[in-house]
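Hello,

Our lab assistant flagged a job as stuck in the queue for most of the afternoon. It eventually completed. Since we weren't sure the result was trustworthy after the delay, we are filing this so someone can double-check. Below is the sequence as submitted and the structure that was eventually returned. Let us know if re-running is recommended.
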Amino acid sequence: MNNTTMAVPFPANLVPNNASTYWMNKGDNAWQLTAATLVGIQSVPGQVILYGSIVKEKWAVNSAFMALYAFAAVLPCWIGWGYQMSFGDGLVPFLGIPSIAFDEKYLLKQTFNGEKFPNATMIYFQFAFAAITLVLIAGALLGRMNFHAWMLFVPLWLTFSYTFVCYSIWSPNGWLSKMGIIDFAGGFVIHLASGVAGFTAAFWVGPRATKDRERSPPNNILLLLAGAGLQWMGWSGFNGGAPYVASTDSSLAILNTHVCTATSLLTWMLLDIIFFGKPSVIGATQGMTTGLVCITPAAGVVQGWAAIIMGIFSGSIPWYTMMVLHEKIGLSKQVDDTTAIFHTHAVAGSLGAILTGFFAHPKLCHFFYQASEWELYVGLAYAVHSGQYKAGVKQMGVQLLGIIFVVLVNIIMTSLVCLLVRFAVPLRLTEDELQIGDNAIHYEEAHVL
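-- returned structure --
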């Protein structure tokens, strides 16, 4: 028997006994993996439970399955080409070069910007964000989209819409990133994008069956609350993971997130009581969501008092657009947005982007972005206070430019994706399937007695 020890090749700088390198911080790496998993839990099981319970019973399986499929389908596309298109070497100022991100040597290398963890961790973390964006879009399409069309829509939209916005805003080489746009954890990239894309896709798919649209009570409000609770608690990873380190900034981001969310929920609930006489559980969860969305672009770059003010705005302005303006605007009445994702994500996301440009604290911004130019990342409120009017106006201009860019990209690319899918399969279920629901589509039902 040959006792000669075979040489096992190790990547450069990798220490065999603990598989660490001199540049990796174990605490940061552990937190980033935990944060990514918390974001994943928001989708699976969070949104899966929420979607399965917020619709009529006949749509419970289909709605939950749309979320589950989207989460699974994004991952192979993400490692196959999406990640590099979003964060890799630049092809153009708004897109990276498509290439695979699953090579073993690449996965073990230090990730971009000198963060103290490997590419494998960053890919997983950013996958959770990409996946939840598609899961959120599904919320606008529940109860009528052809599941086969959804299967095609997910990889196409990820490729031709999400990557454009993500590279532009979050990649160090993106054009809006270089201009100094402030999007701490995805107010633009995820929430504004999903809200606009969901509304646009809902326009192309068409409305639910008349009976479903006129009256569609949740089949299980208690389960809806469970899904919403997972979403809220998972947001600690959503915003807390944005600094890429286990730092004081991540602590501030998490606390601001929960403060804004609680304030927003209470504001929405009080408005329901004042104008409708009773507090609504579903309304409270909507207020919770708008608070989470609004604080996301600002979580680690604003002070606590600003988070409270943002919560008041996020609990009132989307409430007004949903409960009052919605019935007065022709287009919003025509488009059937099943879970009101336009109001909870597009409106709240835009609101958060603007308020971030106003309340962003320059010292917190420079701590987060590690920037040396003090002309960038200055909220308008602080710019006025310190006499830096030009910098504050410029920041608001960049925030507004980001909103316009995200809206236009998602209207155009979502429309093109829907038209392309329509050539292959119908976007909408047949009338018989719309009447029957889950049993006609999947041969399965939520509750079989």
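-- support follow-up --
The delay was a queue issue, not a problem with the job. The result is valid. Residues 1-10 have pLDDT under 50 and may be disordered. The first helix runs from residue 26 to 54.
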